[in-house]
């Protein structure tokens, strides 16, 4: 017995039934912290450090209770006291330590690494305000600092601190730690977040997220990805990155020495996985520490580093493959700039004349991915198609010289959070049908035996309806938004980016709006839900948000259409919102321009929760289609080869598509008088011009096929039992997308941790 009432009395001198949600949350937080603080860490000679700019960990209470085996007991005690975990969790603040798929992947990985009992910690920064809190005003995105640290958190302050020697000053770090218990493991790993005591929120200008970018001591860990559209922003990002990796490298070396390393054998003790290019400075930093602090000569330091560091690439978008002017790096940390120059000279000597693999290009710009590939021992992509594109296109010049370094590790998601914690009813449904072995091995294929079992299908249908009900309540309670709980729930949630093509779905909405106006009433009302943030400096992405919000208001105010079509943009989309949206979704929108979405992981979460996917042949969608079979998914659009060719030959002309009879009126509607009533002409005209003249991510190329497939999907939804049968088939085949499988692959091929 946990006896929560005793704890409540001791802490608040009241029984549970008289506590507020925030107080109950505090009781449970302390209970879990007590347990995990007492648990031993995973052991092993070799230890992994997973360095990442983002860890989008979400709220931790339910997940931790689940992993500790306390979930059912706590749920029962709360119920007996007239409340529930869902209600109590409303009092938990979601940590603002990440933004997108890259950060959420890191969080799923931490859960799986701990669950497999492997010795591996996450290392990152303790951002005080994350990216930003998004809200909408006048149908535009607005910003607020996303406060989370003034609520009770899971952070433990450690006494570990390092000196980080920048060119102009040295800063002392403070390390905070979050326990990461594995599922049924009895051991923990940690997420280790470095910070500065001198950081000062007061420097943020009232009512904005602006601050003095040059005041490094006070601003260093305020925000994730501070605006880098000017030089001071560039410098700040370099300050952040170097601060993160210098601490990580010092920590890894110190712990290796404690476990018995003599530094020459560091690679037997340490493996560092760098999550995208943001932590790449760890390579020159390791070399600096080995040579200056540990007395190793340069050649050997390079060799040691090369055996320690492995790199994951998460995108082929040029904008995200980081490049920094050498002079900027020099200004922040001259020693690191000098080491990079030396590393570049070695590359030059080894591959003379091969400009494509140079670290420093002709304009003295440093290519971070080049450092990571030359001076790491492994590079992997995050889905089969993505890895092929890296090998054959984007990174082909590197692949030619280092074929043995390349491998694929298709992403995965943790079923603990994305099924057991966020969809308990579905989880119970599965337990009742096939037992609980899947909790360990993620194998759900025995569910296929129920494909034609009407009772099971009706049960599954009822669970989806309940989750829709819960979503409707949540949207109403938190935002006053009313949705039809019996409508079809059609969801696109992800960062806002042209390549993800939220604008294509917006054009479809314009199509549907006119169809309904013309009297073609859908058999079931439709609710289309968006969620996601646009980077503050990304104008077109903000214009796309504006278009969707304006359409939403237009439709809302049109009494002919409003009963049948509703468009919702959920503000400040995050993990907590995803946990309502994904279990409730009927349709998952995975409609990126083929070749551009490295993997996607939302796609896997929707599949696992029984949504059917509308997809382009991109990223992990391709593998999802392989696992569920093409009859249980809705593919459309040009192939990645076709798109890669179009780019290579500069052969895409948006005007050609714009002029098509079915497309032109949809695009023209963006600048119509009707929409102008709800919109800002400048934004709508700019977007219109962009789509008709540039359309770099080809929103128009697949639009006609998209319209056809959407119509087909909605009409097939009318056969609820057959729809639910295919939903079951999707769930049953999701096992491959467990992050445990992904982590087993990383460990077998790259990390070689023993447990
Ligand atoms: C990719 O866009 C992928 C995640 C995790 C993202 C997405 O397709 O699923 O990484 N990349 O691998 C990213 O955020 C900065 O790059």
Automatic annotation (TrEMBL):
It is found in: Cytoplasm. Keywords: Allosteric enzyme, Carbohydrate metabolism, Cytoplasm, Glycosyltransferase, Pyridoxal phosphate, Transferase. Its EC number is 2.4.1.1. It holds the Pfam family Phosphorylase. GO terms for biological process: glycogen catabolic process. InterPro entries: Glycg_phsphrylas, Glyco_trans_35, Pyridoxal_P_attach_site. GO terms for molecular function: glycogen phosphorylase activity; pyridoxal phosphate binding. GO terms for cellular component: cytoplasm. Its cofactor is pyridoxal 5'-phosphate. The modification N6-(pyridoxal phosphate)lysine is found at residue 605. It catalyses: [(1->4)-alpha-D-glucosyl](n) + phosphate = [(1->4)-alpha-D-glucosyl](n-1) + alpha-D-glucose 1-phosphate. It is an enzyme of class 2 (transferase). NCBIfam families: P_ylase. Belongs to the glycogen phosphorylase family. Allosteric enzyme that catalyzes the rate-limiting step in glycogen catabolism, the phosphorolytic cleavage of glycogen to produce glucose-1-phosphate, and plays a central role in maintaining cellular and organismal glucose homeostasis. This is Alpha-1,4 glucan phosphorylase. It comes from Aerococcus agrisoli.
């Amino acid at each position: 017995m946990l006896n929560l009432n005793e704890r409540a009395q001791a802490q608040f001198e009241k029984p549970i039934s008289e506590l507020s949600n925030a107080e109950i949350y505090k009781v449970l937080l302390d209970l879990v912290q007590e347990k995990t603080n007492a648990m031993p860490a995973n052991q092993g000679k070799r230890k992994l450090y997973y360095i990442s700019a983002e860890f989008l960990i979400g709220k931790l209470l339910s997940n931790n209770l689940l992993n500790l085996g306390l979930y059912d007991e706590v749920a029962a005690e709360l119920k007996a006291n007239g409340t529930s975990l869902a209600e109590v969790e409303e009092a938990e603040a979601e940590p603002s330590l990440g933004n997108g798929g890259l950060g959420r992947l890191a969080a799923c990985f931490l859960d799986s690494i701990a669950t497999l009992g492997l010795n591996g910690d996450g290392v990152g920064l303790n951002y005080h305000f994350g990216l930003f809190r998004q809200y909408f005003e006048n149908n535009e995105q607005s910003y607020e600092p996303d406060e989370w640290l003034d609520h009770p958190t899971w952070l433990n302050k450690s006494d570990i601190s390092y000196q980080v020697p920048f060119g102009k000053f040295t800063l002392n770090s403070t390390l905070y730690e979050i326990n990461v218990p594995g599922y049924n493991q009895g051991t923990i790993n940690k997420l280790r977040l470095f910070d500065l005591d001198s950081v000062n929120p007061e420097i943020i200008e009232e009512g904005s997220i602006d601050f003095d970018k040059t005041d490094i001591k006070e601003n260093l860990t305020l925000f994730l990805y501070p605006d880098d559209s000017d030089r001071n922003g560039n410098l700040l990002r370099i300050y952040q990155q170097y601060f993160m990796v210098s601490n990580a490298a010092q920590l890894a070396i110190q712990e290796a020495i404690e476990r018995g390393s003599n530094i020459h054998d560091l690679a037997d003790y340490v493996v560092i996985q760098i999550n995208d290019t943001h932590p790449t400075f760890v390579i020159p930093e390791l070399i600096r520490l080995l040579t200056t602090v540990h007395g190793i000569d340069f050649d050997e330091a390079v060799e040691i580093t090369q055996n320690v560091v492995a790199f994951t690439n998460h995108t082929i978008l040029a904008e995200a493959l980081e490049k920094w002017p050498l002079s900027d790096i020099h200004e922040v940390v001259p020693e690191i700039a000098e080491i990079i120059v030396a590393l570049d000279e070695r590359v030059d000597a080894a591959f003379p004349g091969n400009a494509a693999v140079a670290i420093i290009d002709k304009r003295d710009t440093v290519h971070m991915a080049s450092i990571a590939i030359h001076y790491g021992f492994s590079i992997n992509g995050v889905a089969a198609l993505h890895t092929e594109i890296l090998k054959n296109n984007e990174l082909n010049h590197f692949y030619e010289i280092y074929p043995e370094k390349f491998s694929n590790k298709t992403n995965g998601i943790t079923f603990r959070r994305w099924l057991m914690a966020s969809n308990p009813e579905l989880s119970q449904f599965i337990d009742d049908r096939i037992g609980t072995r899947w909790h360990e091995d993620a194998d759900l294929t025995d569910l296929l035996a129920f494909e034609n079992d009407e009772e099971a299908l009706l049960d599954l249908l009822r669970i989806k309806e309940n989750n829709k009900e819960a979503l409707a309540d949540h949207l109403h309670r938190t935002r006053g938004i009313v949705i039809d709980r019996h409508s079809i729930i059609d969801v696109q949630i992800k960062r806002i980016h042209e390549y993800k093509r939220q604008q294509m779905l917006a054009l479809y909405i314009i199509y549907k709006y006119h169809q309904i106006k013309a009297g073609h009433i859908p058999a079931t009302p439709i609710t289309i839900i968006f969620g996601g943030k646009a980077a503050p400096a990304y104008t077109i992405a903000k214009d796309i948000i504006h278009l969707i919000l304006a359409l939403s208001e237009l439709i809302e105010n049109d009494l002919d259409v409003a009963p049948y079509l509703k468009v919702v943009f959920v503000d400040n989309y995050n993990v907590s919102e995803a946990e309502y949206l994904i279990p409730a979704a009927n349709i998952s929108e995975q409609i990126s321009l083929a070749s551009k979405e490295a993997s996607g992981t939302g796609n896997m979460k929707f599949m696992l929760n029984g949504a059917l996917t509308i997809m382009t042949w991109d990223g992990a969608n391709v593998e999802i289609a392989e696992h569920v079979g093409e009859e249980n998914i809705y593919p459309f659009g040009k192939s990645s080869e076709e798109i890669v060719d179009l780019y290579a030959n500069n052969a895409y002309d948006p005007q050609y598509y714009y002029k098509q009879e079915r497309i032109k009126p949809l695009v023209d509607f963006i600048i119509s008088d009707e929409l102008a009533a709800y919109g800002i002409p400048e934004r709508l005209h700019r977007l219109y011009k962009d789509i008709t003249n540039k359309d770099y991510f080809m929103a128009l190329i697949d639009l006609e096929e998209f319209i056809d497939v959407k119509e087909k999907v909605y009409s097939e939804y009318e056969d609820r039992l057959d729809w639910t049968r295919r939903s079951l088939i999707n769930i049953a085949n999701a096992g491959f997308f467990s992050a445990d499988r992904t982590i087993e692959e990383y460990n077998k091929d790259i990390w070689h941790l023993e447990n």
